[in-house]
């Protein structure tokens, strides 16, 4: 590989690892998210131009920060409309540049800067799609084409979402929320990160059953959040849930790339390191609970995932899983939880028990148009020996899903049910 190619690889790696800290620190300094991103991008362009020619600096992250700060000083000096801010902010930035030549001196600010940026990108004024795109862009360091490819969306659509989101956030405080507002915003943040992970774990549309890169990005961002909020059990619970689910990724498709359902997976292909990490994160969550912090739905879902991770396929403790789903159902009115609870009850006790739960929630408006209910009903009916009815439900589910690989699985199950019927 050429020196230029090596330098470009380093730039890309450093950008992915450091962009959140860079944009966060610049937003704190300038109080302007759009300007902060522009300054960070300017520093990235400068690195792409200079590092292949001059060599990679000893501290690449500090180089990016220092370059961006110089651009900030220049920007404020040039802006006629911001003359009154030039002296105060420009001199402050210059002092930081002289007194703090590398990132080590920012140690008291860095974590808060990243946390502020995560809270800002997950602002409740934004739609879930806009939150996810903005978080991946500013915190994850992904490019617009990478985000568009991950969500099977046009570049222009993602670009417009990000642009509108930044416009919506103009004038919003960059200060960390406190009290109840912080708790609510943390829920929003975790919801966005889980949305990102889930879109990778089971893609809602397209030809691919999974998009592992998006799972990895969700885990990376959640690990970052867990490091920034170590006292929050739900953050550790979410990380545990993601890692335990991600441990199955290699077993979720066969050698031809076809989906493999959980009960048919070769568990020797599950990632033992990821399982250990997930169980360790769950232990941290339960330690926080023992210290007096409340457990929430992510901790409970992680307990369910742990039941699968610890058991062989034919030894899964479905009664324990059903009990955890009972706990999860009591934490809030969530129809998707009830659909999964129906699966657990159908395994733990009888298909009829699962069907009873499913009938209670099937007409919920949030499930309208979803393939989940007919897919689960088909599975429960097949287990009850009602194969003709099961085939009909699998056909309905196949028609509703937007994922081609999932449609193939459901169509195959409908065919199997008709054969047995």
Taken together, the total number of domains comes to: 3
Q: Give unreliable regions as ranges.
A: 97-110
Strand order of the largest sheet: 1-2
Structural class label: mainly alpha
Please report the number of helical segments.
19
Largest sheet: 2 strands, parallel
Number of beta strands:
2
State the distance separating the first and last CA atoms: 60 Å
Share of β-strand residues: under 5%
SSE order: HHHHHHHHHEHHHHHHHHHEH
Q: Which shape, going by the Cα principal axes? A: elongated
Tell me the radius of gyration.
24 Å
Helix fraction, binned, reads over 70%
Mean pLDDT across the residues is 86
Overall description:
There is one protein chain. By secondary structure, the chain is an all-alpha fold. It folds into three domains: 1-106; 122-174, Arc Repressor Mutant, subunit A; 181-316, no CATH class. It is 71% helix and 1% strand. The chain has 19 helices and two strands. It is elongated and about 75 Å long.
Describe this protein with a few key phrases.
421 residues, mainly alpha, Arc Repressor Mutant, subunit A, 3 domains, two-stranded parallel sheet, 19 helices, 2 strands, 1% strand
Compact summary:
The chain is mainly α and 421 residues long. Helices cover 71% and strands 1% of the residues.
